[in-house]
Specification:
single chain, 421 residues, alpha+beta, FAD/NAD(P)-binding domain, 2 domains, 6-stranded antiparallel beta sheet, 5-stranded parallel beta sheet, 21 strands, 35% helix, 27% strand, binds flavin-adenine dinucleotide
Length: 421
Amino acid sequence: MNLRYDIAVIGGGAAGMLAAIKAAEAGAKVVLFEKKQVCGRKMLLTGKGRCNMTNTKPWAEFSSHMHPKAAFVKAAFHNFSNKDTIRFFNQIGLPTVVTQGQRVFPESMSAADVVDVLVSRMTKLSVDILYNCDIIKVMKSEKCYKCIYNKRIGDMMDIQAFSVKAVIVATGGLSYPITGSTGKGYDIARSFEHTVTPCFPSLTALTPKNYDTRLIGIDLENVGIYLTVNGDIVQMETGDLSFTDGGIEGSLGYRVSRKAVHAMINGNKVEIVLDLKPALSVATIKARIGREMEDLHYTEPLTDRRMVTLLKRLMPQQLIQPFLFAHKNVDVKSLPDVLKEWRFPIAKYVGYERAVVTAGGVSTEEVVSKTMQSRLSSGLFFAGEVLDVDGDTGGYNLQFAFSSGALAGQSAAKYVKSLKI
Ligand SMILES: Cc1cc2nc3c(=O)[nH]c(=O)nc-3n(C[C@H](O)[C@H](O)[C@H](O)COP(=O)(O)OP(=O)(O)OC[C@H]3O[C@@H](n4cnc5c(N)ncnc54)[C@H](O)[C@@H]3O)c2cc1C
């Protein structure tokens, strides 16, 4: 059969671009469909525009940041690891740096540079990139796949189609739909009888009940939080937290958000308990307060003004009024406990419009982890966030997109070579 292309990649995000590059490097003729005007719109937002591309942690540690089943990621990671990501980008002209927390960024700290080198590499390998082309359906005939798409020409839409030998679905999840990820890949997967596990936003803000908006804009360093579900502590973390217009966010908020959102969806009561002094015991804080009182020549009970002066020595100034509002009867005696246990019952979470990643997706039970090929339809591959795999913050999600994309591209090229058409 004389087809113009061997492989169609659907989606020009991190996973799709790597898939197209690796398939083309293996000798396949590749077309990439991207419904937006440019590739990598989401990548441009990553790491606050700096793109935290990967994390140098070894697999044993790396795997603890992948959900829900790190085992599915293992083969893809070992085939194209975090070290391979760094090597690959360095070779195609993008120097990288490792920063705090073993996070890797482009040396230029510009996400746009990451997208640029990927697009240049695709162009060099003669991958045809069809922009403004939204795949609406994929159908399998006996020997090939037909990709039907809407091509935007100005204000007009034109329905067109291409037949290819293999398809890689790399359409992303549901988060930040403005970047083009609107869940179309799930429909494509379902049309081939694939199971899509329930999706929910992860790495997102948790909004406290009666959220005190005076907290917005406050960043706290080295604090602790406990996530409780129906009163039981299910996760403890220390690090940095931010109060934003969405609620509790920042790396700490994100770390607990996956479990918190999942619990809320299932109708459970969720609470965040903030420990402002995670390194100190209640007894140590008591002794410290005693020393501060002596230094200030204060005796109990304290007037409101004196309490504020004391608190200035114990927490950032902007936090004092919301803290006192939340703990109206606090006195010197109860203060150590309250500093370690500021309770925020959670009312809701911020949805896909601002969630960093989508949990859930195409079930990994029906995809071969060593190839990323569908178990239900040969020649159909999946890569990236469309799959039921999500990571913590720290470069894990992009590494999964690169690893699964590279493996899907290589496997699809091998599959195409093996066909006798
Ligand atoms: C604000 C923000 C910051 C982030 N920061 C980081 C970070 O620093 N480090 C990290 O590791 N991860 C980060 N992530 C997560 C990471 O960006 C994603 O997990 C990753 O980009 C997923 O890649 P993907 O290729 O699977 O999907 P996407 O990047 O979502 O790409 C999917 C592409 O497919 C296209 N598409 C969808 N449907 C169709 C269709 N029907 N036809 C044609 N094209 C289609 C879309 O337009 C899109 O371009 C961040 C995410 C966000 C939202």
